[in-house]
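sorry to bug you again but im stuck and you know this stuff better than me. below you get a single protein, a line of residues and a line of whole numbers that encode the local backbone shape. mainly i need to know what kind of three dimensional shape the backbone takes. anything you notice is useful, everything is just below:

***
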Amino acid sequence: QVQLAESGGGLVQAGGSLGLSCAASGRTFNGDAMGWFRQAPGLEREFVAAISWRFGNRYYADSVKDRFTISRDIAKNTVYLQMNSLKPEDTAIYYCAAGGRLGRLGFTSAYEHWGQGTQVTVSS
């Protein structure tokens, strides 16, 4: 079983920054990529960013492009999400996902494993 442990959420003012991390442990997972999704109250879970594990290719939702940066540390089995210029509409629970399949990384169904989520709140 793969476990994903997220950390780094919290409360920040608009325009501020936060960094999230997600450490994977347990058995080696299949799939090509890890990603971040978020879910605001009353809304569906939406794609934020993903990174291919082998080559480090990065993919972003238009809403976060140029503000968020995803990265990975292969030795630590950890993926990071640096969030800058945060806006109130970025407020959500952020979920880490592993085992993603290239070509479908924007879809929740493409991932095998999910973390418990970490709350990010951006005040105006």
User: Anything to note?
Assistant: The chain has a mean pLDDT of 94. The two ends are 40 Å apart (CA to CA).
